[in-house]
Design a protein that fits this description.
With 188 residues, the protein is mostly helical. It is built from eight helices and no strands. The longest helix is centred in the last third of the chain and has 37 residues. The two termini are 40 Å apart. 9% of the residues are buried.
Length: 188
């Protein structure tokens, strides 16, 4: 088993992956191209089921962490450490909630639909000049809209991949800890 990369190496790997793939849609297309459509549908179904399970497990993990008085009590002696850990845990909860409920990483742009159309036309090989003429906008506006939409897709993909790798690391860390018996007591 290969060693787990540190946070900086992981961030670089995620950035490289995002630059190469560009969007969730392109990633799905790549899988479909390599595996064939039937295999892609099966993989897509399995990923969807795994995603639901992962989200449920993530929710349970976050709630268990928030409820674990044995974890929080020692941290209470050091308010900075306590606050740092609480901030980290709540950030994971925030990302999970946004992922589950489909909240995008950024607020929608005023012309999100137009930007998407420009992106699609550009992917078909059209020039910014041609797109500008068709949509009655200057070519520089079309170019900026294309770049804006492309960066938004990368940001969405980066957020999802980062979130999933965080959950994976947390699950790996938990799997290496000895399990403790279930307790019915409430946190103090």
């Amino acid at each position: 088993m290969e060693p787990v990369p540190d946070k900086q190496d992981r961030a670089k790997l995620i950035d490289q992956f995002v630059e190469e793939v560009g969007s969730r849609e392109r990633f799905q297309e790549m899988i479909a191209e390599r595996a064939g459509q039937d295999a892609f549908n099966a993989i897509s179904d399995a990923i969807s089921q795994a995603s639901v399970k992962l989200r449920v497990d993530a929710w349970k993990s976050i709630m268990d962490r928030l409820y674990d008085s044995e974890f929080w009590q020692p941290l209470a002696q050091d308010p900075r450490a306590f606050n740092a850990e609480l901030k980290k845990t709540l950030a994971q909860l925030r990302r999970l909630m946004k992922l589950v409920y489909g909240i995008k990483s950024q607020r929608p742009t005023k012309n999100a639909e137009r930007d998407k159309k420009i992106y699609e036309l550009r992917q078909q090989g059209r020039s910014f000049g041609e797109i500008g003429i068709d949509l009655h906008i200057p070519d520089k506006v079309a170019e900026r809209a294309y770049k804006r939409h492309k960066e938004k897709q990368k940001a969405d993909l980066r957020a999802e991949v980062t979130f999933l790798t965080d959950l994976f690391e947390q699950a790996m860390a938990q799997s290496q800890q000895p399990s403790k018996p279930e307790s019915s007591s409430t946190p103090t």
